[in-house]
Amino acid sequence: MKILLSVFVFSLFTFTPLVSSAGPGDSCHFHGSKPAAEATIIQCANQRKAALVKGGKLDKSWADVKQASIAYIDGKKGKEWRVVFANPRAPEQTKTNLYMFFTPPGNFIAANHTGQ
Length: 116
Prior knowledge:
globular; four-stranded antiparallel beta sheet
């Protein structure tokens, strides 16, 4: 019995740091089906935009751009959040709008410049 208890305590302390250490990008992962508040979606959209700029997927001119609009729309698979960022300083004039889509609870779906 002592051995079993020792193994349990050892594994508890060994694996706890792996479970409890969430990265900064993990704060916008939600469960359930209750629609999130607009403020939560805007915060998650700003985090996602910052990650895209940092990763080189978006030009650095997008870094300080605030959201232009937010709407709860009928998407392809039901209701979803759409956040639009408008950047008149974007390097490509055909890509001055950035659309981000989130599930009702706030999980990221996609980002594009077409709005589709």
